[in-house]
Amino acid sequence: MKKIMSFITGALMGSLVGATVAILLAPSSGEELRSEMRQRLDKFQDEIGQAASARRIELEKRFSELKRPQRSGVVEEA
After folding, report:
1. Separation CA 56–CA 44 (nearest Å)
2. In degrees to the nearest 10, what's the CA dihedral of 41, 28, 23, 25?
3. Cβ-contact 26, 33 below 8 angstroms
């Protein structure tokens, strides 16, 4: 457990250092960078929303199939 926590701590610290260096060495201004990051975040949120919606539809379909009464003990396979 201690090795896992050490790894996670190291990975988080490395991520923070990497992100800091990337921001400091970015070729665009702060405002441009923030704008680009907002656009990417919005796009990412839209993609997540679409994926969640598609998954919800899939799960609702599966749930309705499972709720349907089965014929005389015969189990239908998908």
Report:
1. 18
2. 150
3. yes
User: Could you report the per-residue pLDDT of 12-68, keeping only the tens digit for each?
Assistant: 999 999 988 887 787 777 788 788 889 999 999 999 999 999 999 999 999 998 888
Instruction: Please check whether residue 61 is in contact with residue 53, taking contact to mean a CB–CB distance below 8 angstroms.
Output: no
| Secondary structure (3-state) at 21 | helix
Beta carbons of 76 and 70 less than 8 angstroms apart: yes
Task: Name the pTM for this structure.
Answer: 0.47
Q: What is the DSSP letter of 69?
A: P
Hey, where are the domains in the chain? 2-67
Give me 58's structure tokens: 């899939």
Is residue 28 a contact partner of residue 36, using CB atoms and an 8 Å limit? yes
Q: Which two tokens stand for residue 34?
A: 């923030």
